[in-house]
């Protein structure tokens, strides 16, 4: 399914709403640049999970996925960042079994993230972006508040915002997922 105009309008409203602490021009620029576009993604998730629990399914094959860039800024407080991601992953997978999570780490912090994911027992792989091409090619904003994207099954961006930076981002992201699923379910019937 292509990106739906109703979904695009809904997602744009949600992004304006949750990024109220960011300059409106910056949010508008991110919306224009990313919403409805495809991201160049890193290689497939390695088969070995970072946590002690096995990965039960391939996140790339899920209807929706959240791809999070774990840069050097996020690593300044790894344990707190990971604690927040663990809560979001648990909540997301419980509410939306068709939601996958992909974590892409900056090459300088990859090993640290893998160790932290293992200690936190988060059963998701951390992809090392060896050349930092995901960040550079997609021109990810410097602001860590925009270091996560919600993608549909065709890897089209439906929502941009880091749920660990602002609880409202996660709440609105779940609404966009539900709205997208509702549209997809109608199309499939």
List the helices and strands and how they pair.
Blueprint: H1 5-18, H2 24-34, E1 64-70, H3 78-95, E2 99-105, H4 110-120, E3 126-128, H5 133-137, E4 148-151, E5 157-160, H6 167-188
Parallel strand pairs: 1-2, 2-3
Antiparallel strand pairs: 1-4, 4-5
Percent in strands:
5-15%
Write the element-wise H/E pattern from the N-terminal end onward: HHEHEHEHEEH
By oligomeric state, this entry counts as single chain
Give the termini distance in whole angstroms.
13 Å
Low-confidence stretches: 45-49
What would you call the structural class?
alpha/beta
Number of strands: 5
Bin the helical content: 40-55%
Number of DSSP helices? 6
Compute the gyration radius: what is it? 15 Å
Mean pLDDT: 78
Strand order of the largest sheet: 3-2-1-4-5
Shape: globular
Largest sheet: 5 strands, mixed
Outline the structure in words.
This protein is an alpha/beta fold and 189 residues long. Helix 4 links the parallel strand 2 and strand 3. It is globular. The two termini are 13 Å apart. About 3% of the residues have low confidence.
Name the descriptors:
189 residues; alpha/beta; five-stranded mixed beta sheet; 5 strands; globular
Quickly describe the structure.
This protein has six helices and five strands, in the order ααβαβαβαββα. The model is unreliable at 45-49 (pLDDT under 50).
